[in-house]
């Protein structure tokens, strides 16, 4: 049983309508900076909401690993989203994604419920098993057990949110509850939507039965078709979201070029591409927005994407 029928405001913003919704992710300033300027990030978050983005997503990256191209989410996910919530109105706030096997499920459940309450019920929780193996060594966690830990965490968090004074087994050596303790606060809608990310070392059947949606990475359109077919067979009408990068070329008619995890193209092609994703059955796209320019101007990029792409969807 999942929580697909909840009334979480963030989930409704992303998935309740008939059309494709679009979000973007932090950092909104130069993603190579180790400490993005807080004031600038918050101002850009409010601007992204104003120009039509439906969601703002933060990653969960505890350590910097130079092997990756960027630092990731510098500020811890939950305090950061709480800060962003205070400077935005109704845009959905998402995690993309919390690495469950590296965190105790009670800590995740409490932190997530707190952000959800402070934001007026806007939190959508993407969850994953992570892609930075050295972090497992750093936390003394068994990477070979991450799949099992993921399943145990999902079950434990749902139990903590749904019930009062629940009996919960956190799995492994992480302890549990026997009905004498309760987690507070509960989420605003009584629970939180969970979007497993990638396969999270689970079968598609498990994801469909236990997730409220599926958040995946960029896929070529022919491959996407088969993934969507598998997802619909396992999950019915539960939403499918995809993360990718889209760089707008100066020439609005420019043909697409492949970039890391996405494309560089003119806005005419980008609009057509997003319409094709919508027709295929994608419900939300988390886009990394940039421009094919030597000097980055994030506010200009967000404005231009809003005016030339979002306003036409």
Itemize the secondary structure elements and their pairings.
Blueprint: H1 9-15, E1 21-25, H2 38-50, E2 55-58, H3 77-85, E3 92-99, H4 105-118, E4 123-128, H5 134-138, H6 146-162, E5 167-169, E6 176-178, E7 194-196, H7 204-210, E8 214-217, H8 221-235, E9 240-248, E10 257-259, E11 262-265, H9 267-280, E12 284-291, H10 298-308
Overall description:
The protein has 313 residues and is an alpha/beta fold. It has one domain (9-312): Luciferase-like domain (TIM Barrel, Alpha-Beta Barrel). Helix content is 36%, strand content 19%. The strands form two sheets. Strands 1, 2, 3, 4, 7, 8, 9, 10, 11 and 12 form a ten-stranded mixed sheet that branches. Helix 3 runs parallel beside helix 4 and helix 4 packs across helix 6. The radius of gyration is 19 Å and the shape is globular. The two termini are 34 Å apart. The mean pLDDT is 92.
Question: Could you list some keywords that capture this structure?
Answer:
alpha/beta; single chain; 10 helices; globular; 36% helix; 313 residues; TIM Barrel; ten-stranded mixed beta sheet; 19% strand
């Amino acid at each position: 049983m999942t929580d697909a029928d909840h009334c979480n405001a963030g989930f409704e913003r992303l998935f309740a309508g008939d059309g494709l919704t679009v979000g973007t992710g932090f950092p909104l300033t130069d993603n190579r900076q180790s400490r993005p300027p807080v004031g600038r990030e918050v101002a850009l978050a409010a601007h992204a909401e104003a120009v039509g983005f439906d969601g703002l997503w933060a990653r969960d990256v505890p350590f910097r690993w130079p092997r990756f191209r960027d630092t990731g989410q510098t500020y811890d996910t939950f305090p950061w989203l709480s800060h962003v919530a205070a400077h935005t109105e109704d845009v959905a706030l998402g995690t993309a994604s919390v690495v469950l096997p590296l965190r105790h499920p009670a800590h995740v459940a409490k932190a997530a419920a707190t952000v959800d309450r402070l934001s007026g019920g806007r939190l959508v929780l993407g969850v994953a098993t992570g892609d930075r193996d050295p972090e497992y060594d750093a936390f003394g966690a068994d990477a070979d057990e991450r799949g099992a830990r993921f399943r145990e965490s999902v079950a434990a968090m749902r139990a903590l949110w749904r019930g009062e004074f629940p009996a919960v087994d956190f799995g492994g050596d992480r302890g549990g509850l026997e009905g004498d303790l309760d987690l507070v606060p509960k989420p605003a809608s009584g629970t939180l939507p969970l979007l497993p990310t990638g396969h999270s070392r689970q079968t598609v059947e498990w994801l469909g039965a236990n997730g409220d949606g599926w958040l995946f990475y960029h896929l070529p359109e022919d491959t996407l078709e088969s993934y969507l077919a598998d997802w619909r067979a396992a999950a019915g009408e539960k939403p499918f979201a995809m993360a990718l990068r889209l760089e707008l070329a100066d020439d609005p008619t420019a043909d697409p070029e492949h970039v890391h995890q996405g494309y560089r193209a003119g806005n005419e092609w980008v609009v057509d591409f997003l319409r094709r994703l919508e027709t295929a059955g994608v419900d939300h796209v988390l886009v990394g927005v940039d421009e094919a320019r030597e000097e980055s101007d994030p506010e200009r990029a967000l404005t231009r994407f809003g005016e030339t792409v979002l306003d036409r969807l």
